[in-house]
Amino acid sequence: LPLICHTYYCFRIDTMIQFHAWITLVAGVYLMSISGTIYLFSTYAYDLQTLMDYSPTQTNFISTMANVGTWAGVLGGLFYDKAGAKPTLWLGSIMLFAGYFLMYLATSKYFESQYWMVGIFALLMGQGSAWTYTGALNTSIKNFDPVNRGKIVGVLVCFFGLCSGIYTSVYRIKFFNHNVDKFFLFMSILLGATPIVLSFVTNVVSNPVKSVSRVYLMYLNGIVGALYIAFTGVFGESLLKDVPKIYLLIPLGVIMVSFIAIAAIKTPVVTFSRQATKSFEIIQDPATAPVDLGIVQSLKKPEFYLLYIAFFGGIGSGIVILNNITNITISKEDIAPGTTIHQTDLPYGSAVSTFVVLFSVFNTFGRMIFGFLSDRFIKTIPRAGWLTFVNIIMLIVQIYFIYAKIPMMYPGMVALGLAYGGMFCLIPTMTSDFFGTKNFGTIFGIVGTAPALGSILLSLLLAGKLDDHFTELSAITVINSYGDSNLFCIGADCFRYTLWITAGTCLLSTTTSAVMWMFANNEKKLLRMELNIN
Prior knowledge:
Helix content is 68%, strand content 5%. It starts with a strand and ends with a helix. Strand 1 and strand 2 form a beta hairpin. The radius of gyration is 23 Å and the shape is globular. The longest helix is centred in the C-terminal third of the chain and has 41 residues, at 493-533. Helix 3 (56-71) runs antiparallel to helix 18 (449-473) and helix 5 (85-107) packs antiparallel against helix 6 (115-143). It is mainly alpha-helical.
């Protein structure tokens, strides 16, 4: 295969027959829309917990294993850097199918399974998501000019965030009727087939695209999709209760198909390339060195560890609320300890689905907003400045959830989504800014273990154990539609201490982000001094 060399890096194109960068970007959008199903866990967590008679810690273990699988993407990054997009997507497809299909078999009671086995299946599903995410993101980062990297990352990762809203709408249709086993079978087929099909139009192009004007149409598409999901999620059980849920999926299908039209406008779908041409890397941040660093070199830079800590504290704290939103909501219900109640009689029983949808929508907005702003104001505010801002929001959210009653949790989920999405747009972009794109897959795979570690330490070991402890002291019994019962912690203590600790981790991540901001400003001053001297 021909070697494509740029001013600061070289890479091999995937094939002599190339699909245009915009076609590959649309394929990336579709791939991202199936890669973020870890955020869907809260939608079916209660049904899974009651069906399988799991404790909060056991349920947390499964969600944590899914998070670990998704964010421990080092192997996927290493494999991508060596083998390219297509083999990465093929293996991702196999793991997605295997993970969801094994969870289907376990929940359908085809064999006796323990919670740790389902956790391993979730880990496998998460790895499939990670490899699919890597194939989509890394390819389009190389296909577009670095000066527009924030916008490209923003449009891709926004659909990673919107994924939970899309599939929450699917889970609500009458066909599934809260049957997690049927849903897992559906997901295994859909997610197993999609990466294989889209791999054939996913390739690195020989000349990165400089003009990205049509990316704003993609942003608009994402905004329309997010607003539609928000409307159906909030009003689906009231204004739209007489409309069959499956009909509400039709506009979403139209929105997703319209991306093909945007990409095909005045674009040759396929080109034939027989020689490499040089292209010049444009430095997108005045504080960024125009070099591609190796893995060892990257690990020697202080920015790597500052970025890692910021990712760990900010996202790890957000995962605590996201993974435990069902239990947090029930703990705030005005019900006396010792009560036995059916799930349909819970005053705020339907609130969790709305919370997941709100998070999904504003997670999407956060990725688009901070992707755009970090490019638009790059000369005045480094990306580290925006990262500091979103970490401050995450800190406030942790404290807010300690005191908020259930009706006030809605704006909390909005703020959580914005901060969470902002981080997941800024961190990959900053990783490529600091360390280049040559080894981006591997380096970001290592950085990506930070939220996985945060999920283990903060969600599983901290939140899960404290929830179990306080469940023994004060609990209610909730009966689901199958007739199964489960204990849930009730009272302010259930998550109070957990959230104060996660607020502390957010303070740490805010501090490290501020230090990176200070580094960036100091480098700008040095650059200006050098220019003045010359």
